[in-house]
Amino acid sequence: MPDNKSCDWSDAVGIDINGTGVNENVDNNSTIYVYLVLYPFLLLLCTVGSIFIIAARLKDETSRKTSTSVYMICSAFGCLCILWSTLPEYLTQVILNEYRNGTNFSDEVENVIDLALNYKGFGVFWNEAAIEFVDWTLIVFSVERLLVTTQSLSVARAMTDSSAWRRTLLIEGVLLILAVLFAVSYLPTYYYWLPYSSNSTEAMQEILPLPLGRWLTLQGTAEMGMWIAKWLLLLILDIALLCVVIRHRRNIKTTMMCSIKESSTRTSNLILMASVALYMVTQLPNVILQCMRIASRPPFCTLHLTNTHESRARPIVSILHLSNYSVSFFVLYASSSKFREQCRMLHTRVARTIRMTNSKIFTSMETLRLADSPNRSPRNSADNLKANRVVERFI
């Protein structure tokens, strides 16, 4: 990591290994409450929505073995990993905020802090790997839809045939491996530093040996560049796809649109463009912040970004960043009528299962009550049992 002091700034900006960039040394940061209040809500939305996406796609036999379903399921699983791997860092921020307010903690809370610190290295590693996996899944999905829309009929059929989901699953496996390799530097650097953290006030960069320090520096630089590159790449792909779709709509003689399942292709393109639009909006503040961080470092030194300014902006940027992975269910629900039908069918099945379970519990309790009644007669018990069986068959 370049030293900001060479830019003659009075306040340095560093890359925090927790990935959130929330500066724990800045007091009275009112924007941190945006992060503390909204994160549980986003976690709930992501959990319920992702489970619905996975269950709805797997339950539908007609769309289960399609490339779009594979992309949606992998993306939903990655979103779950992103939001849940952020939870220990969120709990740490809650405890630190209470500590700044003068709260005295018990031994149990201190044990929770120690547990969060021990998990933090793995949590940051898995969070970063999941982010790269989900983002590059969206990029690969964009490339596939662009090729399907622009290539010849034979190529498009080869990319949308019944075996396309196996090829997509293989691509997702490769993306997962590459994402893990990209973020693996957090494991050795953090867990080498952790034993020294309690007895030293030095920064992590000063404690790490030279190879690990350079690796951490390279990781921070690569992440800043990766955010900007992904955003620009998705913007270019989405504009290109939008132009192709508009041209095909105007040209009614286009063989591609007349020969392939037009409704399926249109739905997949709509899902993609809606997902990319959400990504563009929610990730733009983070991209701007990364550009400002690069501009504040050598050799540019054109912008003075202080710790105070970054720590105030980071909670809001983090919430917008996490919202991209939390509301994908609503984007998919709004852009796909077939997915809405899948959700309705899944809701019907779940509701029916709950009603049947409640009915069986009620029937069992009623049977036990009648069996324990001292004034019952054999005739009444037989009639009640017969009536319960009729109710069960009817439900």
Number of domains: 2
Distance between the termini: 66 Å
Q: Structural class, from helix and strand content? A: mainly alpha
* Total count of helical runs of at least 4 residues: 16
Helix-strand topology string: HHHHHHHHHHHHHHHH
Q: How much helix is in the residues? A: over 70%
What's the mean pLDDT score? 78
Low-confidence stretches: 1-5, 11-27, 253-261, 390-395
Radius of gyration: 27 Å
In summary, what is this structure?
By secondary structure, the protein is mostly helical.
Features:
2 domains, 395 residues, mainly alpha, disordered N terminus, Rhopdopsin 7-helix transmembrane proteins
Q: What does the model show?
A:
With 395 residues, the protein is an all-alpha fold. The chain contains 16 helices and no strands. It folds into 2 domains: 4-335, Up-down Bundle (Rhopdopsin 7-helix transmembrane proteins), CATH 1.20.1070.10; 352-394. It has helices at residues 32-59, 61-64, 67-85, 87-100, 107-150, 153-159, 164-183, 186-197, 204-207, 210-250, 255-259, 262-295, 307-323, 328-335, 337-372, 378-394. Helix 1 crosses helix 15 and helix 4 packs across helix 5 (107-150). The longest helix is centred in the first third of the chain and has 44 residues, at 107-150.
Task: Summarize the helices and strands and which ones pair or pack.
Elements: H1 32-59, H2 61-64, H3 67-85, H4 87-100, H5 107-150, H6 153-159, H7 164-183, H8 186-197, H9 204-207, H10 210-250, H11 255-259, H12 262-295, H13 307-323, H14 328-335, H15 337-372, H16 378-394
